[in-house]
Design a protein that fits this description.
By secondary structure, this protein is an alpha/beta fold. The protein is 33% helix and 23% strand. The relative contact order is 0.08. It binds adenosine-5'-diphosphate and zinc ion.
Amino acid sequence: MSDPTILQVAVNVPLSRLFDYLPVDGRNAAQPGSRVVVPFGRQKQVGVIMALANSSDLPMHKLRRCQALLDEAPILSASDLNLISFASDYYHHPVGEVVAAALPALLRSGKPLLPDLQCVAITAAGAAADVEALARRAPRQAELLQVLVDAGGNGMSVDALNELLPDWRRAAKPLLAKELLTRFTRKADWHPPVCDDIAVPGPDLNEDQKRALESLRSVSGYAAFLLDGVTGSGKTEVYLQLIRDVLADSQQVLILVPEIGLTPQLVSRLRQRLGIEPTVLHSGLGDAERLAAWRSAQQGLAQLVVGTRSAVFTPLPKLGLIVVDEEHDHSLKQQEGLRYSARDLAIMRARSSNARVVLGSATPTLETLQHCRSGNFTQLRLPARAGGALPPRLRLVDPDDGTSGDGLGVALTTAIEQQLRLGGQVLLFLNRRGFAPTLICTGCGHLAECARCDSRMTVHARDRSLRCHHCGAQTRLPDSCAHCNAAVKPLGAGTERIEDVLLRRFPGYAVQRIDSDSTQQRGAIEAALLAAEQGDADILVGTQMLSKGHHFPKLTLVGVVNADQGLFGTDFRAAERLAQSIIQVAGRAGREAQQGEVLIQTAFPEHPFWRMLISGGYAAVAEAALAEREQSHWPPFTRLALLRANAHRQGDALAFLQGVAELIADRRPATLRVLGPVNAPMARKAGRYRAQLLLQSSDRKSLHLLLATLRPALEAEPAARKVRWSIDVDPIELF
Ligand code: ADP
Ligand code: ZN
């Protein structure tokens, strides 16, 4: 007898290991990539077989048996499992939780890949029945019978009948009793959505676009590119041409976008230009829709998949190209649970699938630029706007708003007035939602603070509340100070306040606010953006939600209300970030005939950052920042991992990380620097005390070797139970 097969199963629990099981009794066909139901402790869990083995560390008699094999054929391929293992190793995250992140909820909970369809069909007797005679006595029954005669032997699904004849069940009863009809279940089959659009040709590419496309076409197999093109330079046109090539080769294409709000415009453009219906995957889908989309990708039917970051895990057996649009965007990084960068996984994935990957941005990250310098990526430049539109003009203006204190200075107000008179559209950008960032007492100067966080409460005027943007706490907006009873007033300006000011100063013009408060309802973002795009709104005011990727044809003036917020940040990425957000929002202006103007309100016009940005653009800021990072040993010249911990009791998190630091001290490679532990910049959040420990290394390998031993040690550490802790590899937020 040959050695028994042992299944190594990934189970959705926070432990960094696989679990060994024996196959279901009498079933030896289980393969990696199939799901099984396994006993786990006293519970049952759905797991995925990651590998088969001949032996186990456990004695044979201790091995438990799988209770069920859920997939006869694997639902994850070797290449999908490879990506999952890579993500688990690289991010030092339990493999079972990575699998869970990669699967749609219905598969995670054990539902079949193909759902069972309830169907109704005619029997032989039904086919022979006299429909006309029946129509005289029972017209409803006759109608149903005729529909099913027309449908043929496969019958129709209950869902389809519900739609066609909402009242069909009543008519079906007697027909079923007479055995003219029969009910049964079968596996749903899936048809890719049909697209009615015929591909319309796009503009002829300009010289820069042609050169970029040529370079992209010149390789087959893995290669990574940065399409470094100013806003409106026609990056999307280049993707479209390349996508067309890849589809013509019968390969699949994955497009990753940072936000769901960016998908409608892109999807309709893809549909029109390619004449196929893109398969969309994002957090706004229902479970069944998500599974259907996932399945069509997994079966190779979906040719073009567009999704937000988690779509990077979608199985694509014929993957030929990944496009990561707006690669600099922070939404591509997941900041909780499995903390991964969809961009970085996309690159790894392209490499192992021997596919091309194109990162696109007008403001590429310094990490990506450094990859270009070192030759890992090919940098393709589109330095000018396509179709002849001029680049927007940047101008610094005084935020002086006289005595109004409402955030809109005289210079900006005048410019808005002018643009509106000329029939242009205006966008005001400000990274603060709510009415005002805090409430101050006019008597004692007390500021409204959150009881559970080290932070201020934001004033929200629409529902007269004070809200904490960190923990979600909410109270009624008070009329007077709780300490001295004097009057209170909002301090500073948020989007609601700017909206009010605009309505007051520019009566008769339509103002549209777009932030996460104004777009809570399903479909609200899409509707607001459509209104903006069609020019229904004269003035748009909003947060970064508005600044990304959109094309508003009529927009001629952008005002950055509070640019100084980012000027003195302590994070080593402050300059990069500020430059990205200014250039991105500026890029919304003047994308068609009229040149765009960008007014930046700042109290520090002499700051070297502004000089650099205005004279040299993003490239100058990036170059200076790269030099600085190299000198001070920050990424991309070193690698970081951030250990975070939080606990109910003050001191516990810090003590835990102190222990970790000591543990590391023993095995620390020479290249590693340990910074901290320290209290987090916001030391208390939602009632929990937070601390962090930063590991910095000049080489990736030794850092990862250390983390690989650290993780299991911490999982086994009793002191770790008192705290919640996490490892963030390549963190982009250091708090
Ligand atoms: P990006 O993705 O770089 O922001 P887009 O591809 O959206 O740029 O192009 C910006 C605008 O310029 C779009 O309206 C697009 O149709 C137009 N455009 C792009 N390439 C050309 C071209 N070669 N000739 C004329 N118009 C172009
Ligand atoms: Zn709070």
